[in-house]
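Journal club side-thread
Mid-discussion, someone asked how the predicted structure for our own chain would compare to the paper's figures. Pasting it here so we can look after the session.
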Amino acid sequence: MKNILLIHTGGTFGMSPVLPSMTLKPGNIRTDIEKYLPMLKDIAHIHIQIPFNLDSSNISPADWLKIYSVIKREIDHYDGFVIIHGTDTLVYTASALSYLLLGMGKPIILTGSQRPLSVLRSDARSNLINAVELATHPIPEVAICFGNKLLRGNRTKKLSIESFEGFESPNYPDLASIGLNIQLHPQNFLNSKHRLVFKPVFDCGIAIIQVFPGLEPHLFDYLFKTPVKAILILGYGVGNLPNLKPGWVEFIIRAVQHSKTVFIGSQSVHGRVDLNIYDFGKQAIQAGVIPLHDITVEAALVKLMLLFGNFDDPDTVKKYFNISLAGELSAG
């Protein structure tokens, strides 16, 4: 049997309801797994480590590094890793680990649940059983197991706060399908040629602006006087912004003049940013904007935090941002 390290970081999965209010508080994950999932021992030899126990909304880059340190320290001692994590920021953690653990070549499966393990009709049981079984297979990347799918970690978004199928990979096919049997799709597995080794340092100096009708760009001129290194603008559709009157193009020009690197993404979930379709996009490219292509906003944000944490030169950041390092970006 394979040896699997189960890393518990907190979240709804391991919480217990408190009577009579039924509010949730952290439970005893070791006891709960032994009580509700004794069959895990029939799948693999399970060992548990708890680097921290947090509501995932409180997780920061420092906590990503704690998980990374555990896996790096134990990489030669286990055949696979399963990380229990709260759903709210799960995709950020998955993205961070995908960049930090490039080339590890072992399954690193994140999972969580919409309901605690200890309550009736919980999705926690099936999610953890499936994640552990998947971690015994030769899946050479960081992935998310949730519902009936295995998804690339840095391609995934949380789309529902109540569905047991709460996550989706909008621009990349599933890594496995889960039904009566688990069907792997190895043609979709990561085969990255890039083995860039990052220092585990994140720079959080990134600002995100979500455009809406009537929003005046000059409201964000204050960013030019801050340590922010990059501005990520979420436009409409393929990355379009209004340009009937002077505004966003001029804002981008001012940002670049103040040594801010500007990126444009989309508020749409499916599809690819393409700044060559509309007049604004062509002006934005001339002003120095970098499109997000088909990377998720979450994966782009974490990637930028890591790149700016490793490189002082914005041109180097731009170079590596436009390269798919861990399968987060499609070619073309």
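Post-session note: The longest strand covers residues 3-8.
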